[in-house]
Design brief:
By secondary structure, the chain is an alpha/beta fold. It contains four helices and eleven strands; from the N terminus they run αβββββαββββββαα. The strands form four sheets. Strands 1-6-10-11 form a four-stranded mixed beta sheet. Strands 3-2-9 form a three-stranded mixed beta sheet, with helices on one face. A two-stranded antiparallel sheet has the order 4-5. The longest helix has 13 residues.
């Protein structure tokens, strides 16, 4: 990571299987089923953030299609049971879906939840807000 961060203006682009409302990124498993390894994702996420002028992006579609054809959100209240945390909530900088981009750095827990719900698939936003309220990470001042 330290060598990577010495490269000015470094851009890292990584993928995610799922992201929770706290900003934790799972890029390795689907529940208990292993899909991939961590590789160097965390090194590049941190290295790009620490690079002078660098930026780190986690990019994913807002939904994935299940075997039965139904859609599931990649942005979840919490990671699925058995999921691995590839990037802890303090590490991701920019999160990108087809509905926009948000910078999580420096945001409080409720600000992260609001920002991530804002780039989630519209069909899942109300449910995510209800989950965030239930988890006490949604403020009445948040947008609806």
């Amino acid at each position: 990571m330290h060598i990577i961060s010495c490269i000015d203006n470094l851009i890292s682009i990584n993928n995610a299987v799922e992201i929770d409302l706290f900003g934790q990124v799972n890029a390795e498993t689907a529940g208990f089923r292993n899909i991939s390894g961590a590789g160097g994702q965390l090194d590049f996420v941190l290295g790009a953030y620490l690079s002078k002028g660098g930026k780190s992006f986690i990019c994913c579609s807002s939904v994935h299609k299940n075997r039965d054809g139904s859609l599931s959100s990649r942005i979840l209240p919490t990671l699925q049971r058995g999921s691995v945390v590839t990037d802890t909530r303090a590490n991701p900088q920019y999160i990108v879906t087809e509905y926009g981009m948000t910078n999580l750095k420096g945001k409080s827990t409720w600000e992260r939840a609001e920002a991530l719900i804002g780039i989630a698939h519209p069909d899942f936003r109300d449910e995510l807000i209800a989950n965030a309220e239930e988890m006490h990470i949604w403020r009445k001042s948040n947008k609806r």
